[in-house]
Specification:
CATH class of chain A: Alpha Beta
Structural class of chain A: alpha+beta
Radius of gyration of chain A: 17 Å
Number of helices of chain A: 4
Oligomer: homodimer
Strand content of chain A: 25-35%
Shape of chain A: elongated
CATH superfamily of chain A: Hotdog Thioesterase
Chain lengths: ~150, ~150
């Protein structure tokens, strides 16, 4: 059951969303399946690349971030999916053993005009590594249910 | 070895990138791992949702699209990673059994000023279902090597 509604997200509010560590095996597995570029799947070729070693697919960073967002923030919300995202920025490579910490900042909540039971939540996601350095940022949107009048 | 360089991508050029079918098992597997919202992981809850049935995580659509982009377009290019993407739009739900077809349209190529061996390729990705309906669009960018002078 939803316990957070559109009204529970305050613009400017910051919601921590936990952290996750990525192993070399996980980076290779994701890369082989979804993004088999040499610097994601071949440690030797990766060493010879401009990255100097294996790095995670940016889409793996997005996927593990999404899992944390669902577990820590949106899983308890009356979430109804998303129309899309803007401005994904991969700011630094993610390497084997890195631990990523995720936080969400609420940008805006806007009740729908046509559908009074829901609205759009716009938010920014920041993903930092274990040294506090930004590795990814993203601006997203979700349809979120409004608190029912009982 | 790279066989396509920045110079080989003509603005306006359209590159087909193949197609992929998504099974219910694959949708459930991805959802459980990365995006465990009810309409991605629980067929019964999905039926009661606004989607009326199970739908794929938008991030799964992105991930299988990326695989096709690497296999059909960027895998042969001197690709050096990506600074990010803009404007991912999930336009229609992707349901079990849907077949997604991907094409890339080149928007712009811009040689780097500071690094003469590479440039930025900006492109649009369109993902249609088996009925020719748009399910996702995305505007992305990649660093691509320039053709060496031999």
């Amino acid at each position: 059951m939803a316990t957070r509604y559109l009204e529970d997200f305050e613009p400017g509010g910051v919601h921590p969303a936990g952290s996750v560590q990525l192993s070399e095996d996980e980076i290779l597995e994701f890369g082989r399946r979804y993004d088999p570029q040499p610097f994601h799947v071949d440690p030797e070729a990766a060493r010879a690349s401009i990255y100097g070693g294996l790095i995670a697919s940016g889409w793996q960073t997005v996927a593990v971030t999404m899992r944390l967002l669902v577990d820590h923030v949106f899983g308890q919300a009356a979430n109804m999916g998303s129309p899309g995202v803007d401005e994904i920025r991969w700011l630094r490579p993610v390497r084997p053993g890195d631990t990523l910490s995720v936080r969400v900042t609420v940008l805006e909540t806007r009740p729908s005009r046509s559908k009074p039971d829901r609205g759009v939540l716009r938010f920014r996601v920041d993903v930092d590594n274990q040294d506090g350095e930004p590795t990814m940022s993203m601006v997203g949107a979700s349809f979120v249910g409004r608190r029912p009048h009982i």
